[in-house]
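[Automated response] Your request has been received and processed.

Submitted sequence:
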Amino acid sequence: MPRKSAENIEEVEEKTSPSQEEKKETSEVDKLSEMLASVLEYISDDEIEEIDIDYILDKTAGLRDWWNQYKEKNRKHIEEEIRESLGELSLEELEKIREQIKETKK
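Generated structure:
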């Protein structure tokens, strides 16, 4: 039986051990799983009559930060959707949008 050299053993270990990226992804999945479980626990509580999103965002560790990052990642997608739909709007609708934009710049 041939002996494995140190190089071969290192190659096998590299192939079987999780990379830093895989560990990061696993950690992210674990965090998201915890957040989801916390949210589901809250909304499945029979005593809760009205769901308070701000409460969920504040009381679920890391959820508000994740939500803000998610919204920022989707910003480009939202901008593109708006650009594409502008051609379908009437002149009146476009003027309303322009006024809203002017108001936000003040």
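Summary generated for your ticket: DSSP finds six helices and no strands in the chain. The mean pLDDT is 85.
If you did not submit this request, please reply to this message.
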